Structures are given as structure tokens and as C-alpha cells.
Amino acid sequence: MALAPKPKDFPRIRGALKFYQVASIITGVLLLLLCIEMLLKYSPLGLEVELGGRNGLLALVPDGTVTAVNLSTGILIVHGWFYVVYLFSDFRLWSLMRWPFLRFVLIALGGVIPFLSFFLEGRIAREVKTYLATREAELAKNDIVEASH
């Protein structure tokens, strides 16, 4: 028998879901930016993104010639740190929902496989909201039945 979330945790689950949704979207966008940056840098083009250099506010410069802020490295670092936040949001939702460990791993992959975080965010949000609505309706029905006896 699978473990079910505790009714007293339903408000915390809603908060964890909102946190997960925001973290998922931000991580997904950063991952897409990182993919674009990697394609630019490691393709035959060999370009990096420079911010505020002599070539203007935002410029593509040959790899290794960045003289101002290296936005390519910045995207890499920000995505890495935000992935940690994403994992925390994943862990929080996973533990409150009492899902199996493989579910945690699947959600964690959303931060490293392009577009997966967007797909999972929508699917998991629907699933959790449906589950909470169904369980709350069942609990309310049981409370009414018990109160009438």
C-alpha cells in the first residue's frame, strides 16, 4: 500500500507546488539559455557572449577573447546554483506527497534535460491539484456523514 499525504500537510503541499512551479520554469529557461550558449561556444562558430565590452552592451565574440563580463560563464554558474534550488523544491514536493524515489529522480532530470521541466511542471501541477481536490472532497464528505450520526 502506497503512503498518502497527510491532510494536515495539504496547505504545505500547495506552497511546495507553487515553489516547484516557479523553480521549474526558471530552471528550464536557464537550461535553454545554457544549451544555446554551449552550441555557440563548442560549434565551429566558437563564440561566447560578452556583456558590456567594447563591442557594445551585448556581443558575440570569439572564444577566449572576452574582455568584459563573460555572460556565457554567468549563465553556466546561475543555472548550476538554481538547479540546487530546483532540487530542493523537487525534494520538498516529493516528500510531502510521499511519492516513490524514482519520481524524485524523474523530476530531478527536468533540470538537466531541455524542455522536460516545462512538461513535468504542467503535468505534476495538474496531478497534485487534482489529488488535493479529490482528497478534500472525500474528507469533507466523510465529515458530513460523521456529523449527521
From TrEMBL:
Membrane topology: Multi-pass membrane protein
Key words, A-Z: Cell membrane, Membrane, Transmembrane, Transmembrane helix
GO CC terms in record: plasma membrane
Ranges annotated as spanning the membrane: 20-40, 68-89, 101-120
Keyword Transmembrane: yes
Keyword Transmembrane helix carried by entry: yes
Subcellular location: Cell membrane
Entries under PANTHER family matching the protein: MEMBRANE PROTEIN, MEMBRANE PROTEIN-RELATED
Protein name: Integral membrane protein
